[in-house]
Amino acid sequence: MSNWMDLMTEAMTGDTTDVVATHRLLKQCEDAAMAEVQALLGSSEEVSAAMTSLYGALSAYVQAVTLRAKAEGAEPGDLDHAFRTGQSYGVSCVLNHLIDDLVDPNSGSILASLDEFSDSLHNEITSQVDEAGLTVEVLDAKGNMI
Q1: Which domain holds residue 20?
Q2: Are 51 and 111 in contact, with CB atoms under 8 Å apart?
Q3: Of 91, 118, 140, 144, which one has the fewest beta carbons inside 10 Å?
């Protein structure tokens, strides 16, 4: 298993003018780190509980950002709406494209059941992207280009 910290250091201190090579290193770093998380997840119920709590925190953050946009009166298409939508979309991608790939073998885990919940959050966010008429490429909850 690759050491994700070494890969990260190499990507950050190496030749950053070769964007493709740096991207490749960062993807290897992501894969190595997620493999380590997966191995740790299977090692104890405490890690399982920590991942579930992290999931809850990230989900709450996404919802708080969305509500903040509403409280600020952000209108679809304005800068505040685009910023808040992008902010919540980024965190939702972490939930849906990284954490949802983890498999928790511990009994009583609810991590898998949270996948459907985070998908619904992500779908709400991508509908805001459509509503605003933003022309950036976005991914659905399963990582497919919309």
Answers
A1: 1-41
A2: yes
A3: 144
Is residue 112 classed as helix, strand or coil in its secondary structure? coil
CB 14 within 8 A of CB 6: no
Say how many domains are in the chain. 2
Q: To which residue do tokens 């493999």 refer? A: 35
CB 45 within 8 A of CB 34: no
Q: Based on the number of CB atoms within 10 Å of its own CB, is 65 exposed (0-12), middle (13-18) or buried (19 or more)?
A: buried
Could you tell me if 88 and 125 are in contact, meaning their C-beta atoms sit under 8 angstroms apart?
yes
Question: In this structure, are 67 and 103 located in the same domain?
Answer: yes
Whether 37 and 55 map to the same domain: the answer is: no
pLDDT in tens, 137-146: 777 777 777 7
Stated pTM of the model? 0.79
